[in-house]
Predict the 3D structure of the following.
Amino acid sequence: MSQPSSRVGRASPAVRAGFVSLGASIVILAVKLAAYLYTGSMALLADAAESSVNVIAASVMTFSVAVSRRPPDADHPYGHGKAEPLSAAVEGAPGMRANLLMPGLIDTSLGRLASAASPLRDRVKIPAGRQGTAWEIAYAAVFLLSSESSYVTGQSLIVDGGLTSGPRA
């Protein structure tokens, strides 16, 4: 019988910190609600309502960090790291924008290794008629980082030559 992986049942430090944050938020919310019930103070009730937002934010953050730590799989060959910025988008930090850049099949050395391992990758019908280049992804990243995209937040910019939306005939 094989031994279970050492990772089974162990959360990363970031996920553990998320659970500590979530637990602290819940305790603070409970204390404020108890204080409201004891005193009847509307100010304490309002403060408890604000704390409920902190519980939601800590929940989203913990979930996002946990998902981002998952290893690559068939549907996510580069991993799940893009899940983590969702926390920032949900919380809406003032002056902070969170967007996702989602590249399709890109002609890079890693992409060529993937094609060697799975020849079907080179046979995928891309509406643009070719794989993208690293420069095309870089230009999209520069756009998202520039002031030209100052009104863009919480969005996914798909740069895949129409692969996810176009016909594959």
Observations:
- The chain has two domains: 1-96, 99-169.
- Confidence is low (pLDDT under 50) at residues 1-8.
- Residues 23 and 46 are 20 Å apart (CA to CA).
